[in-house]
Amino acid sequence: FYAALLAWARRTGHPRHPAETPCEFAARLRGLFPALAPEIERIVEAFNREAYGDVATGADRLDEMRAAWRRVTSPRHWPARVGRWLRR
Fold first, then answer.
1. Fewer CB within 10 A of the terminal residue: the chain, N end or C end?
2. Taking CA 22 as the corner, what is the angle to CA 61 and CA 77, rounded to the nearest 5 degrees?
3. What integer pLDDT is reported at residue 75 of this predicted model?
4. CA torsion 56→42→78→14, rounded to 10°?
5. Measured between alpha carbons, how far is 10 from 16 in angstroms, rounded to an integer?
6. What is the pTM of this model?
């Protein structure tokens, strides 16, 4: 889900900067898309747990990630993405 979030942000015109940590990247995205802040946080938190904490994501967490990703990619939020993309 984190790789998909990276691609989503890149397509929106806000790629992760090479020096940004996942948490810094998430903070920047949360500032740009406040309506999606909880979902962005969930996705990045799960990535950090797996990548740095060596803790596998369980089935219940995967369901949360799927729900978060559906909300991030929902057409309902496209106007905010387009607006941010145009203001770049």
1. C
2. 70
3. 79
4. -80
5. 7
6. 0.82
Q: How far is CA 21 from CA 41, 63, 67, 87, in A?
A: 13, 25, 24, 24
Q: What is the pLDDT of residues 33-48, one digit of tens each?
A: 999 999 999 999 999 9
Q: What is the pLDDT of residue 3?
A: 96
CB 66 within 8 A of CB 36: no
CA 39 to chain centre: 7
Q: What average pLDDT does the segment 23-28 reach?
A: 96
Residue 18 has pLDDT above 80, yes or no: yes
| CB-based contact 1:69 (threshold 8 Å) | yes
For the residues of 27-69, what is the DSSP string, one character each? HHHHHH-GGGHHHHHHHHHHHHHHHHH--PPPHHHHHHHHHHH
